[in-house]
Amino acid sequence: MLMEQVRHSFSERVLRDMGSAVLVLDKKGGIVFANTPAYRMLELDENCCREGSRFQLLAKSDYNDSFNEAIFRAFCDTQKTVFNKVPYEAPSGKKYVFFMSCSYLQDEGMEDHQLVITLSDETEMEEAKRKLKESSLTFTTFLVGFCVWIIAYALWDFAGRPFRADFMTHGVELLGIVMLLFIIGRTSLTWRDLGITTDEPWKTVRTALIVSACAVAFFCAAKAVGRLINPNLFSPGAPFFDISRFGLRQILYIITAGIQEFLARSVMQGNLRRILVSKHKGVMAIVISSLIFAGLHIHLGFMFMIGAAVLAGLE
Fold first, then answer.
1. How far apart, in Å, are the Cα atoms of 306 and each of 157, 226, 284, 299?
2. 220-241 confidence digits (pLDDT tens)
3. Based on the number of CB atoms within 10 Å of its own CB, is 21 exposed (0-12), middle (13-18) or buried (19 or more)?
């Protein structure tokens, strides 16, 4: 009798200290035991283990059908351990993905079976897998669009550039819009996943203005140095700032620049960070996306490509 009490106390202590959630149900579905992780994750009522309490965790919720079905199926199979990966929504609305194992225990001389349910929280792992899969799909789709654009550029150049380079830039913007619609329609990536947040809008605007000011200063200095070295590097006789070239197209560029920013930062950099496996994947994502972004501006010449790569890297 004493050994039985010691064994019971030891088993209960082990179950209580486990990191996984553990539930013990009797053959009628009554909750015999629940450890602390089970109370926390399943959001059980503190009186759920009273005599006569039944296991009715959100049975009316369609989201938990797989969870409840796995437990009911385990009640029907007393000969083996049942393993399942099931979703679960707690009463507060928080969602989990559990790796569930259900097995029967029966002490000698006892007629009643007890079903032991162990739940390991794999929510973060499943979320990481989902983001990796969707990021891979998104970036693969982008690469297809990038290759199509390069072929279109080659055809445009082969035909003697029959229309202005601005139309080729519109092709880049169109690719950005297509990728936005693809992400919204075919993935569950959130704006935060894409690096687009509005938590601190003024801080974001201030950072963008500082980066833009630094970029303008850099290119002004580069132009000044270039004109000193080679006066014919730019249009001879043209003013340093040619205001006459500023028109509707430049005003609309404020909008199209946002599309290109989304393409460079969210589609390329954000997805590359999730796809790459490297200690320095953040830096590699910036470098690779900057080079691709530069390639998308090949129709505007070498110097413009360098500028696009530098700006993409600064962002």
1. 20, 15, 18, 12
2. 888 888 888 887 777 777 777 7
3. buried
102-126 residue pLDDT tens = 888 765 555 567 888 899 999 999 9
Tokens, residue 184: 């919204």
**Where are the strands (E) in the chain, listed by range?**
21-26, 31-34, 82-89, 95-105, 114-121
Question: Which H helix or E strand runs over 154?
Answer: helix 123-158
DSSP assignment of 229-267 equals H-TTSS-TT--SS-GGG-SHHHHHHHHHHHHHHIIIIII
Q: Cβ(25)–Cβ(115) under 8 Å?
A: yes
Q: pTM for the full model? A: 0.70
Residues forming a β-bridge with 100: 84, 119
State pLDDT tens for residues 120-167. Answer: 999 999 998 999 999 999 999 999 999 999 999 999 999 999 998 888
Give every strand in the sheet of 114-121, ordered side by side: 31-34, 21-26, 114-121, 95-105, 82-89
pLDDT tens per residue across span 39-53: 888 887 766 655 545
Torsion angles phi and psi, residue 200, rounded to 5 = -130, 75
Q: Are 100 and 121 in contact, with CB atoms under 8 Å apart? A: no
Closest CA to 138 of 273, 291, 310, 286: 273
Q: Are 84 and 70 in contact (CB under 8 A)?
A: yes
Please tell me the total number of residues recorded for the chain in this structure: 315
Q: How far apart are CA 235 and CA 279, in angstroms?
A: 46
Q: For position 58, what pLDDT does the model report?
A: 44
